[in-house]
Amino acid sequence: MQKISNMYDYRIAIIDDNQAVLKTLKLVLKGVFASVVALPHPSSLPALLASEKVDAILLDMNFSAQRLDGEEGLNWLKYIKSQPNPPAVVLITAFGDISLAVTSLKEGAEDFVTKPWDNDALIETLLKAIEKRDDQRHIDTTLHEANQLKDKHESTMQMTLDELKVGESGKILAVDGEGPLRCRLLDMGLTPRARVTLQKIAPLG
Fold first, then answer.
1. Within the chain, where are the H helices?
2. What does the angle CA 8 – CA 129 – CA 11 come to, to the nearest 5 degrees?
3. Residue 59: pLDDT above 70?
4. Is 120 helix (H, G, I), strand (E, B) or coil?
5. How far apart are CA 15 and CA 122, in angstroms?
């Protein structure tokens, strides 16, 4: 975890329409994290995410008196997670609303806290959420790079097979033994395992 002085070098956004909750959360977190932004409504989220790096969002589930089912929070959660390299999201739920918390986890939230919260537990939850997000980013990057290598290999194989189809197969596969054939395949960027595949699909002329 990144630390500067006695604070964690992370930017946290708090979104809650209750001004008392918003003020209290900011007081709790501002001495722990390098930057803490407090917003009374998630409508400011698009501009915030577009202009600044945010490591984690502490998001309330309800923003109007007419709706208390948490649907607003879930919709904003989906929006956040649809963005490139989204921040970690920790949802604030009412005490006992476990089913809504479980739904939020299924929709991509890293974790949730209930009101009233414990300050130390809240900070630990945010740190673990950021760590979880970073781990997922590493996995996503690794998978992306692996898929790129796979696509590149398949493209090379296809080019080689196209060459074989126009007359190279007889010349290459007619050579018996491990010596010249192995060298020729390696020159073409193919592994010895690929030789077995070529022998099966390419005509010997």
1. 19-29, 45-51, 71-81, 98-106, 119-163, 169-173, 179-187, 192-201
2. 40
3. yes
4. helix
5. 15
Q: Identify which of 76, 104, 96 has the alpha carbon closest to the alpha carbon of residue 13.
A: 76
Residue with tokens 């979104």: 15
Q: Which residues contact 109 (CB under 8 A, 6 or more apart)?
A: 77, 89, 90, 91
Q: Is the pTM of this model over 0.70?
A: no
Band of residue 200 on the pLDDT scale cut at 50, 70, 90:
very low
State phi, psi for 92 to the nearest 5 degrees: -100, 120
Q: What is the DSSP letter of 191?
A: -
Q: Where are the alpha helices (DSSP H) in 30-118?
A: 45-51, 71-81, 98-106
Q: Provide the pairing of β-strand 56-60 with 7-15.
A: parallel
Q: Are 48 and 39 in contact (CB under 8 A)?
A: yes
**More confident call, 136 vs 190:** 136
Task: Give residue for tokens 């398949």.
Answer: 154
Q: How many other C-beta atoms lie within 10 A of the C-beta of residue 99? A: 10
